[in-house]
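User: We ran a pulldown and think these components assemble together. Before we commit to crystallization trials, I'd like a predicted model of the whole complex to look at. Sequences follow.
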Amino acid sequence: MRAIVAFLVTAMLPILAVAQPVGEQPRLSGNSPPTVAMKAPPVPATITDDVRRPRNYPEQPPVIPHTIDGYQLTLNTNRCLSCHARQFIQGSGAPMISVTHFMDRDGQVLADVGPRRYFCTACHVTQADAQPLVANTFRDALTPNER
Amino acid sequence: MFRSLLRTSLLLWGIIVRPATTLSLGFLTLGGFAAGVMFWGGFSTAMEFTNTETFCTGCHEMRDNVYPELAQTVHFSNRSGVRAICSDCHVPHKWTDKIARKMQASKEVWGTLFGTISTRQKFLDKRRELAEHEWVRLKSNDSLECRNCHSTAAMDLTRQAPRAAGIHTRFLLTGERTCIDCHKGIAHQLPDMTGVAPGWVETR
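Assistant: Here's a predicted model for the assembly, 351 residues in total across the polymer chains.
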């Protein structure tokens, strides 16, 4: 059995090498082979340097350059807003949530964050120092072409 | 009824005030000492039992509401394998403070008997009030239960994220704020936080 799997993997190596630059990774689609124990890769460490990252395209939600472990984001409380809300940014030095978050779906600007923009992690995510699971050749229109 | 009670009390008082006639002084002193040791040991053991996880989660109010929340946090499971149980944060370690807290906790026995938070909804409705009690307690004792394990002297700020180190230097080391001001809800879900300003806010 092992030999067959090894043979298959070896046979697929050229394809894998093109599509996926890293070796050990979970499959993102399809069934895992039932006879093989899929090894979960370790969870990479979160980037915590507090340096704001550029957006890859104008509409990209900015990514979070710090950990959010244990931050409570519930109907009762929103830990993100305790620094990023308009009224707290002078003390915290955190970037204010953009005013687009104050708009309701009719474009009416409210006094504070609108209900449909309340759950920050729906769009904003932390970053990890890890290889992407799926290779991506996306290039920003403004980035000089390297070809 | 009352008369018989009075008669019994008088009889007992009569026994107590009269000197022992058949028991030796040695028996009384040493026996008293041994009985004292046994009483004190029993008292301490019983007291310690009320500090265990088993005891705290013995009632469904704690087992179904707050305990599963703790189980999700870093104080329950972490890389170094140190666990803080209920009493580590909710009961002072020093004897006098502990006794005072245990006496206060008699209110919780009342609550159990009369079902103050006997359902999930009752608990959620009361959660802000209960949380506020704990915030007030930890604020007034300068986050004593946090400091039983976390001391500023042992805190290596260089190993913290720059942002955390900066905030600790500015607010914690100066004594301007105490742990609970910023670290609310580290072991439990927070109640509705409307009107509760973040701990580090300048003007409060």
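Residues 88 and 149 of chain B are 9 Å apart (CA to CA). That may be worth checking against your pulldown data before setting up trials.

User: Thanks, that helps.
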